[in-house]
Amino acid sequence: MVREYPPLLIAVLICVMLTSTAFVYGLLMDGSAPPPGQPGPPPAPTATPGTPVATGIPVQVTSRSFSISVTPATATVRPGDTIRFTLMVHPEGSFTGPIEVRVSATALGGVFRDNHDLGTVTPPYPPLTYDVVAPDLPPLVSTATVDATVTATGGGIVQTEQVQLVIRR
């Protein structure tokens, strides 16, 4: 005959066993740590490429990154007008990697969607221009707003900039 134990008792026993295991593990792992109040030995310096070795002298490490700006950020045009957007890449910390640029746009509550690959820019990062011809508006629509996101990706870094185009009859 099998004896049944209440679920609460089983849960309590499991908790006690897990807590005891964690406590013992903590004691065993703490054995290699120095006693409280005494500093341990300094970490051994490593010499991997691109990583400064600890010498006791402060070293200022600049992060390599970039930012972007798009002008104009907002524009109002009539259907058929052409507007030129200019993207500038601003390298920071001697960033020199190639940067891929994409634009995704939505309008009319998501009815209109458009994606464009604008290519890749490389140092010295010349301005990237993109001409947009404002489309005609659907019947009975007097104004439409196109919200676009410009995404620049390079060196594991992703930067975005929001752009807005208002089309009015």
Overview of this protein structure:
The chain is mostly beta strands and 169 residues long. It has 1 helix and 8 strands; from the N terminus they run H-E-E-E-E-E-E-E-E. It has one helix at 7-30; strands at residues 65-71, 74-77, 82-92, 99-107, 112-121, 128-133, 143-154, 157-168. A 5-stranded mixed β-sheet has the order 2-8-7-4-5, with no helix packed on it. It has a 3-stranded antiparallel β-sheet with strand order 1-3-6, with no helix packed on it. A hairpin with a 4-residue loop joins strand 4 (99-107) and strand 5 (112-121). The protein starts with 6 loop residues before the first helix and ends with a strand.
Q: Which CATH-level-2 architecture of the domain at 67-168? A: Sandwich
Structural class by SSE content: mainly beta
Please state the CA-atom Rg, rounded to the nearest Å.
30 Å
Considering DSSP H and I runs of 4 or more, what fraction of the residues is helical?
A: 10-25%
The name of the CATH topology of the domain at 67-168 is Immunoglobulin-like
Number of strands: 8
Strand content: 35-45%
CATH C-level of the domain at 67-168: Mainly Beta
Order of helices and strands: HEEEEEEEE
Overall 3D form: flat
Notable traits:
169 residues; mainly beta; Immunoglobulin-like; 3-stranded antiparallel β-sheet; 8 strands; 14% helix
Topology at a glance:
Blueprint: H1 7-30, E1 65-71, E2 74-77, E3 82-92, E4 99-107, E5 112-121, E6 128-133, E7 143-154, E8 157-168
Parallel strand pairs: 2-8
Antiparallel strand pairs: 1-3, 3-6, 4-5, 4-7, 7-8
Please give a quick description of this structure.
This protein has 169 residues and is mostly beta strands. The protein is built from one helix and eight strands.
